[in-house]
Amino acid sequence: MIHKRIGILGGGISGIALAAHLGPDVDVLEKRSRIGGLCGAIIENGFTFDAAGPHIMFSKNKPVLQLMIDVLGDNVRQGRRENRIWFKGRLVKYPFENDLASLPKEDNFDCIYGYIVNPRANDTPANLADWSYMTFGAGISDKYFIPYNRKIWNYDPQKIGLEFVSRIPKPPMEDVLKSSIGIATEGYLHQLYFSYPIEGGFESIVHGFAKRVSGELHTNCRVVSVARDGQRWRVATDDGTERSYDTLVSTLPIHELLPIWDGAPVEAIEWAGRLRYNSLINLLIGCNEDRGYPYTAVYIPDPEIIFHRISFPKAFSERCVPEGSSSIMAEITTNEGDGIWEMSDDEILDRAIGDLAKTEFLDPARVVYRRAVRFLYGYPVYDLEYRSNVERMRKAVADTGLHLLGRFAQFDYINSDVCVERALALAETLSAA
Ligand SMILES: Cc1cc2nc3c(=O)[nH]c(=O)nc-3n(C[C@H](O)[C@H](O)[C@H](O)COP(=O)(O)OP(=O)(O)OC[C@H]3O[C@@H](n4cnc5c(N)ncnc54)[C@H](O)[C@@H]3O)c2cc1C
Predict the structure, then answer these.
(1) 180 and 236 in one domain?
(2) What is the domain extent for residue 169?
(3) 412 C-alpha to center of ligand 1: Å?
(4) How far is CA 339 from CA 277, 282, 372, in A?
(5) d(CA 168, CA 260)
(6) Are 107 and 238 contained in the same domain?
(7) Which of 108, 221, 312, 333 gives 20 to 30 Å between its CA and that of 21?
(8) pLDDT (tens digit, 9 = 90+) per residue, 44-92?
(9) What ligand 1 atom has the least distance to the C-alpha of 55?
(10) CATH number, domain at 113?
């Protein structure tokens, strides 16, 4: 049996960034043929797509952001967010409350009236829907915030907790009033500028870290069982290899790890079973014309349209499309059993291309490339019991000595920058041990 000091399960950004900060006595075991996980790319027919949906580099943690930029060397550019919200055929600047003058007059009035005359302004919110009514009033909530969130979470906003929104700054009243009469303001500056790889999509960052790994990266290497073996961890992979490690770190989705973990703590199984997640389908569409859209992404609250967001890879890097072409990604949040997950790839592509034609974002006759990509684990859902469930799950796992790292291992709605930040912290702990 092969023995090493540290085994890392999963070759997404968490696993690779961790390995990049440890010595040579380390394995990374990744089931797919390429590293990247949710940061992965699909590069076909001259088009480059971020497989799970559009990714950009931004972070409140400046040293981490700088590290992610550094690993790209020269392969990085800066862009400016140009997001819009599609509302009754109009493109409203994001965030919605900063561009009310772009709405039809009646809708603008409803929004600003609901914002000023808001009987719930001093409520203490208990869920996402409450928070929206308290913060924005009825107009903005009913026309945009609630329908959009119902689509992206695929869940009732009244059953979603406040973990996520507590980080969103409340818009200054002055800005909302100005926006209603058409004086330009810029809300939510945090992600206004972003960095992105010139070539290879967001996945290039993971390859940048991979170049710094001195241990071994094994792709096409699915972990099929994990077990405690005295002071060590025994890991078997689908090629029949058995390995043992002094320390084990799993970046696998917790719902994937527990069924293959022989002797997994029953409390971890119990609490993980209560954690809700969303799957996603990302539709990749290439066209042989370029309409020159300057937008990065467009949010679609309309419940009749199947996707909740579309994005334009060329706005992230010109190299994402062949000369004279363009591409669109359309994202759908879904869950097994909701009827959408069960649709075939062709059915869902036909429906989405129809909706893109209806909203006038493309001409179906110009589509030269189409592909649907599915991720069972897309978004952890912060429902009302999330915090207590996740803390119990994590404690039960931590008590065994196994380390969890990353978005679906720790079951935390985190971006890649936080994955890297946590990888650095764990590398320091493991190196000191
Ligand atoms: C739609 C969307 C948009 C996003 N936008 C941004 C953004 O703009 N900016 C940003 O920074 N972040 C963004 N994120 C978040 C970012 O994608 C994640 O935080 C990050 O990719 C998580 O990385 P990870 O390594 O923790 O997990 P993962 O990427 O899920 O890695 C886990 C790895 O484990 C592997 N694996 C699973 N089972 C096994 C097994 N049995 N054996 C071996 N390997 C296995 C998987 O193949 C995968 O490679 C976005 C995420 C989504 C879904």
Answers:
(1) no
(2) 95-187
(3) 11
(4) 16, 16, 16
(5) 38
(6) no
(7) 221
(8) 999 999 999 999 999 999 999 999 999 999 999 999 999 999 999 999 9
(9) 8
(10) 1.10.3110
